[in-house]
Amino acid sequence: MDLVERFGARVDVSTTTAAVGYFLVCRRPSADHAQFRGGVASAVGGAEYIHLDNPNGFVVVATAYVTAQALRAHPMVDHVGGVTLDSNRLLTSTGEHRTAAGHES
Fold first, then answer.
1. Which of 57, 78, 87, 101 could cysteine-pair with 28, CB 3.0–4.6 Å?
2. 105 neighbors 97 (Cβ within 8 angstroms)
3. Is residue 5 one of the residues assigned to a domain?
């Protein structure tokens, strides 16, 4: 018996490598935050895609899934994980959103 049969629900956990979302990127404790932020901004296409910035060691970025995965290999990055932002309760640094193709909308 699979999940659909057991619970009568539709389950979709698929994604494409071009899917765009928000990602928490934590820096290594030994890394300088300004250099870390600059490196992450460069990797995701610019500082405008950094939506939250905490000098205690993390940023939240809007980027493609494949870019977030590539950030895991960055020498200043300790962790990368997907997050959800509530846009009704949290104003971000830009009103622009990146589409899956990488274009602003």
1. 78
2. yes
3. no
Residues 6+ apart with CB under 8 A from 97: 20, 62, 104, 105
What's the predicted TM-score (pTM) here?
Answer: 0.70
Q: In this structure, is residue 102 part of a structural domain?
A: no
Whether residue 39 contacts residue 74, with contact meaning beta carbons closer than 8 Å, is answered with yes
Question: Is 2 contained in some domain?
Answer: no
Whether the Cβ atoms of residue 79 and residue 29 lie closer than 8 Å to each other: no
Q: How many domains does the chain have?
A: 1
Rounded to an integer, what distance in angstroms lies between the CA atom of residue 41 and that of residue 92?
15
Sign of the C-alpha dihedral computed for residues 85, 89, 93 and 94 taken in this order = positive
Distance CA 93, CA 43 (A): 18
* 38: containing domain: 10-91
pLDDT band at 27, cuts 50/70/90?
Answer: very high
Beta strand ranges found along 9-86 (DSSP E): 20-27, 50-54, 58-64, 77-83
